[in-house]
Write a structure and sequence with these properties.
Helix content of chain B: over 70%
Radius of gyration of chain B: 29 Å
Number of strands of chain B: 0
Structural class of chain A: mainly alpha
Shape of chain B: elongated
Largest sheet of chain A: none
Structural class of chain B: mainly alpha
Strand content of chain B: under 5%
Distance between the termini of chain A: 25 Å
Number of helices of chain A: 9
Largest interface: A-B, 42 and 43 residues
Strand content of chain A: under 5%
Number of strands of chain A: 0
Largest sheet of chain B: none
Number of helices of chain B: 11
Order of helices and strands of chain B: HHHHHHHHHHH
Oligomer: heterodimer
Chain lengths: 189, 238
């Protein structure tokens, strides 16, 4: 576990002091980097905040262990987010120059950061696929609520037996849909 | 034997009878496809559950992130206008200014805004800070001040509590009690240091400690949300 795990815990615990420290330590460099790539100040703020939220979601089951410097993980997440943003809009990425602001990040940190980022992207893909599943989305989300399954079946207007069958079929459908996504194959290859 | 997702669900929930479970596990040991399916099912369950849980508490985190992102990244947006539109807007703005100058004594430094206090979600009977935050966010400033004061005696030092206690005291016109709180914050390194300069200036202004009011108002930087209010304080002091 890397010493910067404290920042992950800070996000999970909504620790205002340490979260402020995250901004104090990392925002200026990240902003400079993103602006140098053609990002606006507003977009840089959104990218930075969304990256922190991605970390929060990834670590929400309290199982996540950070194996690289927090800054390396944050940088890679911000880079990917900015590139995705440019794909959705007419923005172009300025590609000249090196990552001058980040020469202090050791090279071996990149492997850990890449692994964490791939996990974020896999989970994001799952949630995106789920979002497009209509009634199955409702069944799956409700099934994971911490209340009796019989009660959930009743809320959904289904018999308990039918609800159980529907739930497992929906999960199976989700698994197949995710597995067949080209992006998923890229992420696991 | 072919297993369905219903069987996998029943297996993972421990709902198979002993014989079926034994058969399932035997198949699982040798059938790589079934292994993949079980792993995927388990992984999807935990991923979706985790994200769903995160979504429920995300608004609370955003209350902390939003002001920080604004402070470190955002700038006022400059908009492009056509010349004709600009002239109309200038004329309209000039009229408004003229009306205000004729009808109002001047911009009041007391006309300021602030964010709701983060962490106002009460999770249990012991969550006194969240209760105090709720009182503040409901604009029950006198009650909030009492709750924050009590918290300061029972909990470790917390800049957020001090800042919102200061605001509660300002709102109830207890300037003499608010001033030392904002002075400490303004001279500290918390996220509230910048904003505390203005509120220290405002408290000192109301206490007619003009030199101190000027000193803190002049510390408010151009990019601060309270820059105009600080200018208002300085104008009143002239």
């Amino acid at each position: 576990m890397h010493a910067d795990q404290k920042y992950i815990e800070a996000l999970l615990n909504h620790d205002q002091r340490l979260i402020s420290e995250i901004y104090q330590r990392f925002a200026a460099n990240m902003k400079a980097y993103l602006l140098s790539r053609g990002c606006s100040e507003d977009d840089a703020g959104d990218v930075f905040q969304e990256a922190l939220i991605d970390m929060y979601k990834l670590a929400n089951d309290k199982q996540f262990v950070l194996t690289c410097p927090f800054e390396a993980f944050l940088l890679l997440l911000c880079k990917r987010k900015f590139i995705n943003k440019t794909k959705k809009t007419s923005l172009t990425v300025v590609t000249n120059g090196e990552d001058d602001a980040y020469t202090h990040i050791p090279g071996d940190a990149n492997a850990g950061a890449a692994e964490h980022t791939a996990q974020v992207e896999k989970e994001k893909l799952v949630m995106l696929v789920l979002d497009e599943m209509g009634n199955c989305k409702e069944v799956i989300l409700k099934s994971l609520l911490k209340k009796p399954q019989e009660e959930i079946a009743e809320e959904l207007g289904m018999t308990y037996a039918y609800y159980r069958k529907r739930k497992s079929n929906c999960m199976g459908e989700l698994a197949e849909l995710v597995r067949n996504k080209p992006q998923f194959k890229e992420l696991v290859s | 034997m072919t297993y369905t997702y219903s069987d996998i669900d029943a297996y993972l929930n421990g709902e198979l009878n002993a014989e079926d479970q034994q058969q399932f596990e035997q198949e699982l040991r040798s059938n790589t496809q079934l292994q993949e399916q079980v792993n995927a099912y388990r992984l999807l369950n935990s991923t979706v559950g985790k994200h769903q849980q995160a979504e429920q508490t995300l608004p609370e985190l955003k209350q902390i992130l939003d002001p920080l992102t604004h402070q470190y990244f955002k700038q006022q947006k400059a908009k492009l206008f056509t010349m004709k539109r600009m002239i109309y807007m200038l004329a309209a703005a000039a009229s408004v200014v003229l009306i205000l100058l004729l009808t109002l004594p001047g911009t009041s430094p007391d006309n300021y805004s602030f964010n709701d206090m983060p962490g106002a979600i009460v999770r249990g009977a012991e969550d006194e800070k969240a209760k105090a935050a709720q009182l503040f966010n409901n604009k029950q400033y006198a009650e909030a001040a009492t709750a924050f004061t009590k918290l300061r005696t029972t909990a470790p030092a917390d800049a957020t509590v001090d800042f919102y206690l200061g605001l509660s005291l300002l709102k109830t016109e207890k300037y003499a009690e608010a001033l030392p709180l904002f002075e400490t914050l303004a001279n500290g390194s918390s996220v509230y240091a910048e904003d505390a300069n203005f509120f220290a200036a405002l408290s000192a202004y109301h206490l007619q400690q003009n030199d101190k009011a000027k000193q803190y108002a002049e510390k408010v930087k151009g990019g601060s949300r309270y820059w105009k209010n600080a200018k208002g304080v300085l104008k009143k002091l002239k």
